[in-house]
């Protein structure tokens, strides 16, 4: 039931009917009021039964009569104009003015007003409240004939009979229209489906203050339209039949009122809707303009204006604003000091400067905080990517090594099978190449680990001289096989460095192995060692067996091989590994090419 | 018990298959499993003398499997892994593995390691039974000073007099690092002068005799830039 009522009360149709009804009722009451106004019927007829008691009579007729009589007497005029409808007699004891004899007057004592000895006395039927400025020692008789008063009373009642229904209908119309308005205010913006406030897409788009302006303007236009413009057409003389002019005025009044009611009604309901939605003030032109201006000004001082800028750029902009504003404040301080002797005026720019400084430091702090956060984030990111790199190397290594294990194992199994001679050759090639692939993969990961900085190091104090000797002893077989002699010039005393012995062994193994592999037969490899400025320098020199048409940089490129034939064993990574291991172990690594001389120079800081 | 039974655990079926065939050729009995869980189940159901265990496996990885096995068994375990870092090897060995082989491995080397581990495991009792002060034992090495013989996993190894003296000196002080000079002075009883090469060459020869892979020695190690030592197992 309640929902049904709600549905009905919130339906478009009932709202529309209520609105139309309001317009019609207000228009009708306005027209009727105008009619009353035009008819010049005294509204007092509605409230006062007898004409003689009415204020129209007391303050109008009676007071004017007293004044006229006194004026007539004091000014000593010929007669009262226009011809009075009452009888009077006035005297101050010496002279008298009258339009009827005292006897005649006293005959009509029903409506007699007597002023005597500075006070009033009244006839039996009179309304006892004459307030007129009589201050001399007059004696005044004033009387209205029963005939006249009866006539006036009749007219009074006639008017009442005419006015009462109209007045009642006005009251009813006003009451109903008010009820309609209250209803409309209650339901506007509501829909039957929900309890939300729905703003109209058309009228509610207009700013509240503009609506209010239009509202007032329309009301003013209506008022002046009726009061000023239409007044000209008013017919001044009272008649029972309405003239053409009066019709015109009434119709115009009706149209004007209807339009005004419609416009004002729409605006009023729109305002009410906004009020319900809590957007009455926010959705106004003034608010928009001011908030726009304040946002614009504020945007200079908080970071919102610079949000899309890089942080350093926003710092820079803020610095510019700060400098310019501070400069302006200094200028103003001087200006104010010259202009005024008031200390408070001088303090004004200083105060502003204080605010600017506070703003500047505050915002800069925020920016620095952001930069710091960004820095931390990027550090974290970098560590994460570093870890990912290690994981990647580990995973790729695993993924390469696992199939390689299968290959090597099955090649080995294959070699044990009873195979024809040619197949045996193929298998031996497979075995050799898979072995080489194993070395390459292993070297590759060593290199990847050391160049990505993930080489685990076991640093200790070691004797570099002993390490070279050990390496040479370890490689004795290879040296003998190569037919190359090695000439070492080492220091007499042990030279201690802080490094990873196992990695350094790889370094020397690779360098010496390289020298043996690419040396011209019959030449010697020189390994020299000397200490200079607490740095131990080790040089491995050999004479190349081929034309070295490459630079020192090329040699260290990964997979670079001195001779461009890549048929022999080895991964081609030897020198690269040696270089990157040396750097990882805290040494320096340099390759020099001087004619046929190939030189590798290593340097390590000496420890005590 | 003629044929030893070996449990092979590797999630890569081809590798497990290859190892199985290799070992079958050598005359061993082989059980294949593809993860740690299966391996544990297989151990319950079978009498096994050696385990070859991959580290990176689904479900239960090699190290965890090994810890479970080690909690109640003393079977030799050879770890097999693509992780070739020293730290990985040290971790594996310290957690109870008897050997550590990196992938890709040389099949012959793996077989040799299996053989050596089995020999040691099956003959260990004898070595301990013949316990006397004349024997120095380090891991699978057993040096008999009276007979002047060195056994590696129970297998006698022929050493020269100097080599034997070096081994005796180093094994008596297993875990300690000695420089070439110190070794020379002890063994040769002469004043050492420029002896690094001499000692190094001897060390290399010994390694070739006692190590399965002399390039990756298990016992006799060079401490680069410092000296030499026998690893204390």
Structural descriptors:
heterodimer, A: 608 residues, alpha+beta, five-stranded mixed sheet, 16 helices, 12 strands, 12% strand, rod-shaped, B: 233 residues, alpha/beta, Arc Repressor Mutant, subunit A, five-stranded parallel sheet, 8 helices
Instruction: Give the topology string of chain A: H per helix, E per strand.
Output: HHHEEHEEEHHHHHHHEHHEEHEEHHEE
- Determine the N-to-C terminus distance of chain B: 28 Å
**CATH topology descriptor of the largest domain in chain B:** Rossmann fold
Largest beta-sheet characterization of chain B: 5 strands, parallel
Q: Give me the secondary-structure category of chain B.
A: alpha/beta
Strand % of chain B is: 15-25%
Number of strands of chain B: 11
Give the name of the CATH architecture of the largest domain in chain A.
2-Layer Sandwich
Low-confidence stretches of chain A: none
**What is the residue-mean pLDDT of chain A, rounded to a whole number?**
83
Tally of DSSP β-strands of chain A: 12
Can you walk through the features of this model?
The complex is a heterodimer of chains A (608) and B (233). Helix content of chain A is 60%, strand content 12%. Chain A is α+β, with helices and mostly antiparallel strands and 608 residues long. Chain A has four domains: 2-27 and 159-277, no CATH class; 46-144; 294-368; 456-605, Histidine kinase-like ATPase, C-terminal domain (Heat Shock Protein 90, 2-Layer Sandwich). In chain A, the strands form three sheets. Chain A has a five-stranded antiparallel sheet. In chain A, strands 7-9-10-12-11 form a five-stranded mixed sheet. A two-stranded antiparallel ribbon of chain A has the order 6-8. The two termini of chain A are 103 Å apart. The mean pLDDT of chain A is 83. Helices cover 43% and strands 20% of the residues of chain B. Chain B is built from eight helices and eleven strands. Chain B has helices at residues 13-25, 36-45, 62-70, 86-94, 107-129, 161-172, 180-188, 196-210, and strands at residues 5-9, 29-33, 50-54, 77-81, 99-102, 135-138, 141-144, 149-152, 155-157, 220-223, 227-230. In chain B, strands 2-1-3-4-5 form a five-stranded parallel sheet, with helices on both faces. In chain B, strands 6-7-8-9 form a four-stranded antiparallel sheet. Chain B has a two-stranded antiparallel sheet with strand order 10-11. In chain B, strand 6 (135-138) and strand 7 form a beta hairpin. Chain B starts with a strand and ends with a strand. At the A-B interface, helix 10, helix 11, strand 6, helix 12 and helix 14 of A face helix 1 and helix 8 of B.
């Amino acid at each position: 039931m309640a929902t049904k009522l709600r549905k009905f009360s919130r339906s478009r149709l009932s709202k529309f009917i209520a609105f139309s009804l309001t317009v019609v009722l207000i228009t009708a009451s306005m027209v009727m009021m105008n009619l009353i106004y035009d008819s010049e019927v005294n509204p007092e007829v509605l409230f006062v039964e007898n004409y003689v008691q009415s204020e129209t009579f007391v303050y109008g007729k009676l007071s004017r009569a007293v004044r006229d009589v006194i004026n007539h007497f004091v000014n000593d005029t010929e007669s009262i104009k226009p011809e009075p409808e009452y009888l009077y007699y006035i005297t101050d004891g010496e002279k008298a003015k009258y339009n009827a004899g005292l006897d005649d007057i006293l005959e009509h004592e029903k409506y007699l007003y007597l002023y005597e000895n500075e006070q009033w006395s009244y006839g039996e039927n009179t309304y006892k409240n004459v307030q007129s400025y009589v201050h001399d020692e007059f004696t005044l008789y004033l009387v209205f004939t029963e005939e006249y008063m009866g006539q006036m009373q009749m007219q009074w009642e006639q008017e009442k009979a005419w006015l009462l229904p109209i007045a009642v209908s006005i009251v009813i119309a006003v009451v109903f229209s008010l009820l309609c308005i209250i209803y409309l205010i209650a339901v506007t913006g509501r829909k039957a489906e929900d309890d939300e406030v729905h703003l109209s897409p058309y009228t509610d788009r207009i700013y509240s203050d503009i609506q209010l302006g239009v509202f007032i303007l329309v009301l003013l236009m209506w008022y002046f339209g009726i009061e000023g413009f239409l007044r000209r057409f008013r017919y001044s003389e009272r008649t029972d039949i309405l003239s053409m002019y009066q019709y015109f005025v009434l119709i115009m009044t009706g149209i004007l009122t209807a339009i005004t009611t419609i416009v004002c009604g729409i605006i009023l309901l729109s305002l009410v809707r906004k009020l319900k939605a809590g957007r009455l003030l926010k959705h106004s032109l003034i608010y928009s303009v001011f908030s726009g201006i304040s946002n614009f000004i504020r945007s200079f001082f908080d970071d919102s204006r610079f949000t899309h800028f890089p942080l350093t750029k926003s710092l820079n902009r803020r610095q510019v604003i700060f400098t310019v504003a501070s400069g302006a404040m200094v200028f103003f301080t001087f200006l104010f000091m010259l202009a005024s002797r008031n200390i408070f005026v001088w303090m004004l720019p200083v105060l502003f400067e204080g605010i600017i400084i506070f703003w500047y430091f505050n915002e800069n702090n925020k920016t620095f905080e952001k930069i710091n956060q960004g820095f931390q984030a990027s550090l974290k990111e970098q560590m994460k990517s570093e870890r990912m790199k290690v994981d990647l190397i580990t995973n790729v290594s695993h993924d390469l090594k696992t199939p390689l294990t299968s290959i090597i194992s099955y090649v080995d199994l294959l070699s044990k099978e009873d195979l024809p001679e040619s197949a045996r050759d193929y298998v031996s090639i497979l075995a050799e190449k898979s072995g080489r692939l194993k070395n390459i993969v292993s070297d590759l990961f060593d290199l990847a680990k050391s160049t990505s900085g993930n080489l685990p190091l076991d640093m200790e104090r070691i004797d570099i001289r002993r390490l070279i000797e050990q390496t040479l002893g370890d490689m004795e077989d290879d040296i003998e096989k190569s037919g190359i002699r090695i000439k070492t010039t080492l220091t007499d005393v042990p030279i201690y460095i802080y490094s990873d012995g196992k990695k350094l062994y790889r370094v020397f193994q690779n360098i010496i192995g390289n020298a043996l592999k690419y040396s011209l037969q019959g030449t010697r490899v020189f390994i020299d060692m000397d200490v200079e400025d607490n740095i131990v320098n080790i040089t491995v020199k050999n004479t190349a067996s081929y034309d070295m048409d490459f630079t020192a940089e090329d040699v260290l490129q990964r997979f670079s091989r001195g001779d461009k034939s890549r048929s022999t064993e080895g991964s081609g990574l030897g020198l690269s590994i040696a270089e990157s291991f040396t750097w990882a172990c805290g040494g320096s690594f340099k390759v020099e090419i001087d004619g046929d001389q190939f030189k590798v120079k290593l340097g390590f800081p000496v420890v005590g | 018990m003629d044929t030893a039974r070996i449990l092979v655990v590797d999630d890569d079926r081809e590798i497990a298959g290859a190892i199985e065939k290799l070992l079958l050729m050598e005359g061993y009995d082989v059980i294949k499993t593809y993860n740690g869980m299966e391996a544990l189940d297989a151990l319950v159901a079978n009498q096994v003398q050696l385990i070859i265990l991959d580290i990176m496996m689904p479900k239960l990885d090699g190290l965890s499997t090994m810890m479970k096995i080690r909690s109640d068994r003393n079977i030799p375990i050879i770890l097999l892994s693509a992780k070739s870092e020293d730290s990985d090897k040290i971790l594996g060995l310290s957690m109870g593995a008897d050997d550590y082989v990196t992938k890709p491995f040389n099949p012959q080397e793996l077989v040799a390691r299996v053989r050596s581990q089995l020999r040691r495991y099956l003959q260990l009792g004898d070595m301990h039974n013949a316990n006397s002060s004349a024997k120095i034992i380090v891991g699978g090495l057993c040096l008999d000073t009276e007979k002047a013989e060195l056994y590696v996993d129970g297998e006698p190894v022929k050493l020269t007099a100097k080599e034997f003296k070096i081994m005796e000196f180093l094994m008596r002080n297993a875990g300690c690092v000695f420089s070439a000079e110190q070794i020379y002075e002890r063994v040769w009883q002469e004043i050492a002068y420029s002896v690094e090469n001499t000692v190094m060459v001897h060390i290399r020869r010994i390694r070739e005799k006692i190590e399965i892979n002399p390039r990756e020695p298990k016992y006799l190690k060079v401490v680069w830039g410092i000296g030499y030592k026998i690893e204390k197992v």
